[in-house]
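W.,

You were right to be curious about this one. When I first looked at the sequence I had no strong expectations either way, so I just let the prediction run and decided to look at it fresh. Below is the sequence, 305 residues in total, followed by the output.
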Amino acid sequence: MPRVSVLLTCFNHAKFLPEAWTSIQRQTYRDFEVIVIDDGSTDGTRDWLSSIEGEVNLVLNEKNLGTYGSLNKGLRLASGEFVAILNDDDLWQPTKLERQVQLFDELPELGLVHTHGTFIDGEGRQVSGAPLGFEYPKTHTGDIALDLVFANRIIASSVLFNRELVERLGGFDDELFGSGDWNMWIRLALQAHVGYVDEFLTKYRIHDANASYRFERVWQDDVAVRTWIRSHKEEFESHSETQDRWVEAMSHNEACLGTALKLLGKASEARQAYWRSIQMDPRRWKSYVRFMATFLPVGQFRKLN
């Protein structure tokens, strides 16, 4: 039985897929199996996959299940102690799995290990700065549950996680469009510490087809995830060194919920969320400003964010 199961998720990225596959095959850590899940590609991806040589578990979805439905399908087939995800447009450096398994061996209490990395464009060139509105995220090793309330700080293609733990958590929420990974990392971080390898081992590709550009679906996901956080806020309190830090995180969560609701045209609900943010932390001046801004048309409000 392999120690690592690699889930390679594919959907209409035939241009990038061969390079992603090569980056798996070049791993210095060799005790892994590969499960490829194609989610209904129509661009020649399936023809290319049928030509793969060597042992691989190839899953061809009859209908499009979405990212998280596909991951859950792969997870059910995985036999490894640990599971890694690689989206078909992203890349790994050769020592990526090796360094992560090493950290798991050093700290077996970890539930997930992720790595630092870089953004690249469609031609593989490094992209600096914050091309998607954020710099490539990083964390420390330890309890990062509250850090994940502020933002998703873990790139899906950078992770290696404990399979049994994720299965106990019920797998990924396949009702979410693009934030099912963030939701999973939050739930996992409430149960176990997270490890971080501060090396440039993952390459996240930015291109026109990135799901992150579909803004309305992203805002709907934000509402779903942040509503979940609010309903579990007591669980986060024990993950904070100080009461002030917990208050700051929960107030931030309500403010972000308010922003997403307003962008979806739900001004009244947005004001309720901002008001909860203010009640939690009256020092948070941005919540006052955005509360008043909810009375503006959505287009003008968007310019403020």
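Here's what jumped out at me. Residues 243-263 form the longest helix (21 residues). And, maybe more interesting for your project: The mean pLDDT is 95.

Coffee later to discuss?

I.
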